[in-house]
Amino acid sequence: MSNHEPEGNSRPVSSNQQGVHSQLGAILRRHFNSVYRKPVPQHSRQAFTKLLNRLHQKEQPLVLDSFCGTGHSTAALALHHPEHLVVGIDQSGHRLAKHPGGDAENYLLLQAECEDIWRLLLEEGLHTRYHYLLYPNPWPKSKHLGRRIHGHPGFAHLLKLGGELELRSNWQLYVEEFGAALHICGHYSSVGRVAERPPLTLFEDKYRRSGHALWSLKAKLGTVTNSSL
């Protein structure tokens, strides 16, 4: 579910899927009615220990920047949330090594699987104040629903972390499908276009320069209402 490197001019997302996936409800019910038992690897536990140590030094509300790529967005979000600890997570050390640094001191980059960190946060009784999912790999082929954030077993942990959630994508269907998944799970969301402001990520800059429409979904993950699971 991770980001990939932006290179050259960007083409619009092409997919053999024309609407919300017909198996979305079934895959959500399967995941929410079973226990996710995949072991958390040692490198993710070590990254989480780094996060806990930072919180022990100074307790702050958490902002997650999941699938942060090079961490450009993490540094920018730290300026937007100066009283919070902003944590960027990506599985690729290659991408994180390209982080240029930032002006804020209230952020941390972790090389780990995002789904592992979500689980470990919940096990520790920690929750997020804000959670950003900025231009994740859309996995546009219909057969790859299970690789999208909302099609992965870790989606249940993401929802339990709570807070204010924002997803951005240049594929409108991905955003609409994510919103449908939230609705099935009993959460309301709103969808609109990304405002014309300085880009948060390299992808956002690239997609805008390529003429793509950029879409945003926002949701407050509070009390669950009218879940159909």
3D architecture notes:
This protein is an alpha/beta fold and 229 residues long. It has a single domain (24-220), classed as 3-Layer(aba) Sandwich (Rossmann fold), CATH 3.40.50. Helices cover 33% and strands 17% of the residues. It has helices spanning 24-32, 42-57, 72-80, 93-96, 114-123, 155-161, 172-184, 202-209, and strands at 62-66, 85-90, 107-111, 128-134, 164-169, 190-193, 215-220. It has a 7-stranded mixed sheet with strand order 3-2-1-4-5-7-6, with helices on both faces. Strand 4, helix 6 and strand 5 form a beta-alpha-beta unit. Helix 2 packs across helix 5 (114-123) and helix 5 (114-123) packs across helix 6. The radius of gyration is 17 Å and the shape is globular. The two termini are 23 Å apart. The model has no long low-confidence stretch (mean pLDDT 94).
Task: Kindly list the characteristics that best describe this protein.
single chain, 229 residues, alpha/beta, Rossmann fold, seven-stranded mixed sheet, 8 helices, 33% helix
In short:
This protein has 229 residues and is an alpha/beta fold.
Total E-strand runs: 7
Q: Return the structural class.
A: alpha/beta
Name of the CATH class: Alpha Beta
Query: Which range does the strand content fall in?
Result: 15-25%
- Our count of helices gives 8
Q: Might you state the CATH topology name?
A: Rossmann fold
Count up the domains.
1
